[in-house]
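Q: Got a minute? One more chain.
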Amino acid sequence: MEKKTVDEILTLWSLFFLFFVIGFVSFGGGYAIIPVIEQEALRRGWMTTQQLTDIIAIAGMSPGPIATNFHGCFHRL
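A: Always. Here it is, folded:
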C-alpha cells in the first residue's frame, strides 16, 4: 500500500469535514447542495469550473443519489 503524505491526509480530512457539514446543515436534497459544494471547492482551489461541470454531468447521469455520486467523482480528482 502506498504511503500518503501529510498534505494528502489533510486534504482527505478537509474533504470529509466539508461534505459532513454540508450534509448536516443542508435541506432540499442533492441538487440543492451543489452551489455550496461549488463555492467551497473553487474557493479552496480543489478544482476548476470545467471540472466541476463535468462532475455534475457524470453524477447526474449515474444511478443513485446525486450527492453520493458527486462525492465519488469529486474524490477521484
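A: The first helix runs from residue 6 to 25.
Q: Perfect, thanks.
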